Amino acid sequence: MPGSRKIGELTDRKNNLYDIVLIQPTDVQYDYVTGNSETYKKLYALADIAGTNIKGMKGSSYHNGQGMYGKDLYGEILKKHLNAINEKWDSIKLENENMSYMYNVIAQTNKNVLNKIGYAYYDVNADGIDELFIGELAEGNWKGIIYDIYTMVDRKPKHVVSGGSRDRYFVCNDSFICNEYSSGALESGNLIYILVENSTELFPQVGFKYDGYENKKNPFFISYNFSENEWENVSEKKFKERIKTFEKYKRFEYIPFSKLK
Predict the structure, then answer these.
(1) How many angstroms separate the most distant Cα atoms in the chain?
(2) Which of 192, 127, 187, 199 minimizes the C-alpha distance to 159?
(3) What's the structural domain count of the chain?
(4) What gap in Å lies between CA 187 and CA 220, rounded to an integer?
(5) Domain match, 58 and 75 both
(6) Residues 30, 90: one domain?
(7) 126-138 burial, b for 16+ CB within 10 Å, e for fewer?
(8) How much is the pLDDT for 26?
(9) I need a surface site. Which of 4, 58, 89, 237 has the fewest CB within 10 A?
(10) 56 pLDDT band (50/70/90 cuts)?
(11) Are residues 59 and 74 in the same domain?
(12) Are the C-beta atoms of residues 188 and 209 closer than 8 Å to each other?
């Protein structure tokens, strides 16, 4: 349900499993500029406290926080990646297994490859359930780069997307996924998506591209329907002003696979 956040799971006496979700209050006035509504803050706090006090009845049992945290959800996925790295899978096998070919590329140039590839958990779509991000331990503009994304669909881990050196992914503005791509010396772009909850779908939001092949004199384009390849040629000023709003990247401090137990 859009706007809801999972807080735990309940098992009834027949062993049926249910997600327990929290829908935050929306009928209290809140100033988004100053954020000064104490009533709003208190309601949010009370909702979280209420979740921890849920009790199962008539043979049911409630487990607060169950089915939400990455460390409890993606163990088998991490083991598979660890095996792939240790066994030095080639690019073809990696791609056949829905894994980025970059692990093979990194292995070719790094002796201690397990210290160069890592993982992080983060709830990017704010549904209360962590996603798994796997990427390269890097610095500068590459810090936080993502090569594989996994999410939970019907309580099972599912692969969302893989990236590469010219087809990179980042989390931006805390809740968006940005695909940075390059198609040549005169074309590159940023495509912004949201991850649909309980789904592997990346839903398009806005796209930016520099395309000197399309327009050498004014190569700046913005699209709100880039999945249909509909682009608007805009001024450099408008382009830079708009893309600047998506420049806050989440720079994951990846846990290296060398520490995986």
Answers:
(1) 72
(2) 199
(3) 2
(4) 10
(5) no
(6) no
(7) ebbbbbbbbbbbe
(8) 59
(9) 58
(10) confident
(11) no
(12) yes
